[in-house]
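User: Here's a chain of 309 residues. Predict its fold as tokens.
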Amino acid sequence: MSRSPLAARRTVLAVVGGLAAVAALAACAPQDSTGDAAATTPAATPSAATSSADACAKDALALKTAGTLTVGTDKPAFEPWFSDDDPTNGKGYESAVTYAVATKLGFSNAEVKWTVASFNSVIAPGPKTFDFAVNQFSITDERKKNIDFSAGYYDVAQAVVTVKGSKAAGAKTLADLAKVKFGAQVGTTSFKAIEDVIKPATKAAVFNTNDDAKLALSNGTIDAIVVDLPTALFLAAVGTKDGGLDDGAVLGQLPSGTGTPEQFGLVLDKGSALTPCVSQAVDALRADGTLKKLEEQWLTSTAGAPVLS
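Assistant: Prediction complete.
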């Protein structure tokens, strides 16, 4: 768990206090005829927790730019993860989580710098221009070959979205969905869910962005798309002028697998020295209830999206 600067200070004070107590005991030890202490008390050593806190102190972090936390995300930055296509305003779940992580690491909001990083460039191998990126990146073993992930900050469900009048509009089961034309963003777990869970008779269309997939659904090129549940609910709740779909509808959630639940994680350079500290910050936010509160504040309720079977 990450420690705030105040917590780190308290830890150091505790160690100093412990050393003082040891010194006092040594002063009271019985003396032999030569005046030397009868026994020698070993010197106290810093705890593993203290060492970890020191390694994650703001001044010790391995950053792209000293004193600045550089965060990457795509543009446009979509609701409900961001608000008004502006990651810097702290609104939307992922923007709010980013600033909460930054606070845990000792940064003020003014010390967080955002940079544009496309989805595909973030998950590709090679050095990055950011300290970490946030953009609904699902943690997978395949991606871990090229990049580091923090601990998961959101547990994901995938959902099917269509529009009124499409061939998918009346679908109620996975068997019904197998008969329709799907689309999803390339390289996403949503696209993989289409192939592995729905298994449609017609090969799913691949798009560079969710925006492109949404447009194809609107104009009838495809019958349905798969996205994460909060995004699905948002698309169905607002019209195209607000970034959603006219006459959009969520058909339901896809069943989860039998293994570890899918999670979104922050992305870092492969082997980044910053990864353990960012993970500790995320774990701390989960433990103290912050992630749950932010999810309730920014992500739409999951009501009305039954699990499809």
